[in-house]
Amino acid sequence: MSAPLDFYQVGDAVCDELLGLLEKFANETLAKQDTFRLGVSGGSVATILAEGMHDLRSDFSKWQIFFCDERIVPEDDKESTYGVYKRDLLDNYPKFPKAAFYPVNCKLSATDAAVEYEKTIRKAFGQKEGSTEVPSFDLLILGIGPDGHTASLFPEHPLLEEKTVLIAPIENSPKPPPKRVTMTYPLINSAKVCLFGAQGAGKAQILKRILVDNDQSLPVARVNPTKGRLIFVACDEAASLIEGNPSREAKP
Length: 252
Ligand SMILES: O=C1O[C@H](COP(=O)(O)O)[C@@H](O)[C@H](O)[C@H]1O
Hints:
Layout: E1 5-9, H1 14-30, E2 36-40, H2 43-52, E3 63-67, E4 69-71, H3 81-90, H4 110-124, E5 139-142, E6 167-170, E7 180-183, H5 185-188, E8 193-198, H6 204-211, E9 229-234
Pfam families: Glucosamine_iso
Function: Hydrolysis of 6-phosphogluconolactone to 6-phosphogluconate.
Pathway: Carbohydrate degradation; pentose phosphate pathway; D-ribulose 5-phosphate from D-glucose 6-phosphate (oxidative stage): step 2/3
């Protein structure tokens, strides 16, 4: 079964739209429960979120922010995703609660960091040790790589078939740096909302292959939160090869 798909073409307002949806989902969630659990990504999406998050009207003390993937590098390395949020958000806006962030322990090996991070997530969701229940994030904000990767799930990589582990190590990422940890499909597809942002003409071809051709060799096309919602936000340039409302129907 496919999750309902919403496609928003937003002129050049991808940043405003992503931040607006983040505020909306956070506050809708907090009207119903005490904690808003968010997963954020690296790359272009990280820059958008880290620069704009402080301005949102929400009770950040009730947010828990995790990483959809992380590169195993020190936090002051320019490749560190947590490093982007630290530099652009936490260091500039000291009122934003640092404790909202749950960084990956990048002092460990990728394997150990993945095991520890899965435990961290399960604990934050109030699960007992040994639980096999899959936590459901309120919102995951995901990026689209030029090769169709998302988080650190890359085309043709064996991790695409992972069914049990929720956070997996990757030692041979085709995009540097090679060592990373990443959410796998069981965790991603259990989210209540998976929200993608696509900005720039460089994303047009891959977005067409994902949304129009439904090319299942592309990791983004396999994101399908079956009990949740799937939303793509694209600027006009990124959406230039898409006509009308895409449905991601399987092609014969
Ligand atoms: O390596 C990564 O790339 C993707 C896509 O990044 P973008 O800069 O092309 O938008 C990102 O979503 C992922 O978190 C990151 O680790």
